[in-house]
Input
Amino acid sequence: MVASAQPPRIEIEIVSDVVCPWCVVGYLQLRRALATLADEVVPRVRWHPFELNPQMPEAGQDLREHMANKYGASEAQSRAARERLSAAGDRLGFQFDYFDGMRMVNTFAAHQLLHWAGLQGLQSELQMALFEAFFSRRQDVNDRAVLVDAARRAGLDAAGASDVLADGRYAAAVRQAQASWREREVYAVPTFVFQQQYTVPGAQEADTFLRVMRRLLERTGST
Output
């Protein structure tokens, strides 16, 4: 009996921030596309850091105030954006629980933890746990206890996560990674890079991701 060939591997890099709602939507659409190709590809997903607000103080900032200051969004515009996101989340099985007093927070510590999670092979699990903490659980993802709990829920060692946050061993690596993506002219998130060949910006529909991956498969003669 001849062993069947293994499906080809596709490298998928995602540049993202923990507090970016469209990063959630885009990733969930990507997962839908990957589910369609479950028997055709073996995905390897890697997350890369992008701080939307690197100068955000430790205490954070009221989200509505932040949106008004940074984007000039009125209260009505902010409310409409939240409604669109909530509807998108509902379609994808994710709860966006926006609330009065919600705050934008600094995400540098979260990105350090994600870097470590990548070394443990649990980066996507931690990314989803952090998305859920911020958008669904009303938690501050700059709070060390929240970060450690998210790591635990993702299957990581809580004590190890606490040590990573305490000593900042991956701070320089996160800064270097962000600088590298800026050099590649990535200035917005989410950004998806497939096999270092196709760059797909924004939270696209699953069909868009499917087309890109099928094109890659055709180029490798796998379809």
The chain has a mean pLDDT of 96. The chain is about 50% helix and 15% strand. The two ends are 23 Å apart (CA to CA).
